[in-house]
Design a protein that fits this description.
Elements lengths: L10 H24 L11 H26 L11 H30 L5 E3 L3 E3 L7 H35 L4 H4 L2
Antiparallel strand pairs: 1-2
Helix pairs in contact: 1-2, 2-3, 3-4
Bound molecules: protoporphyrin IX containing FE.
């Protein structure tokens, strides 16, 4: 079913969740790898171009995910969860939701901070919305770095909790999202 129900996520939420998760994890790996490439590496220009376009795709998917969350509310957290687990899950979901926007949006600001746009998959130009600014660029770099790497332990806790509630507690948590 397309829509979320009171018991599980619908196909739209599932597809968006896993595309965003794969996108964020893949782009973090690509980002960490590309910053160490030498000028003479054949990926020196191609990797950042791919990273920028991928980031814009994740931003678009995050917008769809947020829109869909309003259009089709998520199922309530499982009744088996204890009070602290509910608060923890809500906090993790909020952090993950925020990061879906903060990480690609700060990447966009870095990429356009010289006052010019960049190519999306070589197809069309994503314009710069802010004027050239080194201060904004430095701030965006810090935010992008801290949010992207800070997200890794959040993802690990989130995934660990999903796996624990699926396989140890047998609550069927992961199945709701598969
Ligand atoms: C970058 C990686 C990830 C992001 C950004 C992310 C984000 C989210 C968000 C925002 C929700 C809450 C959806 C809502 O509002 O209802 C959620 C739910 C969920 N995620 Fe993830 N997720 C990621 C990776 C993973 C991984 C790796 C797993 C499993 C191994 C996982 C399993 C789940 C499950 C099972 C739920 C549903 C929990 C429930 O309501 O019972 N996620 N995820």
């Amino acid at each position: 079913m397309l829509f979320n129900t009171g018991a599980r996520y619908g196909i739209a939420s599932k597809v968006l969740h896993w595309l965003i998760a794969a996108g964020i994890i893949g782009l973090t790996g690509l980002g960490a790898w590309m910053v160490d490439l030498s000028y003479f590496d054949s990926w020196y220009n191609r990797a950042p171009a791919l990273h920028r376009s991928g980031g814009m795709i994740v931003l678009g998917l995050a917008l769809l995910f947020a829109f869909w969350k309003i259009a089709s509310p998520s199922p309530p957290l499982q009744a088996e969860l204890r009070a602290w687990e509910r608060s923890g899950a809500r906090a993790m979901h909020l952090l993950l939701l925020a990061a879906m926007f903060v990480v690609p949006a700060s990447g966009y600001v870095i990429s356009t901070s010289a006052g010019s746009g960049f190519h999306f998959l070589g197809l069309w130009e994503i314009p710069a919305l802010l004027p050239r600014s080194e201060t904004v660029r430095d701030l965006a770099i810090t935010i992008h770095y801290v949010a992207a790497y800070g997200l890794l332990p959040v993802i690990a806790i989130h995934a660990g909790a999903a796996l624990k509630h699926q396989f140890i507690d047998k609550h069927g948590t992961l199945r709701r999202m598969l």
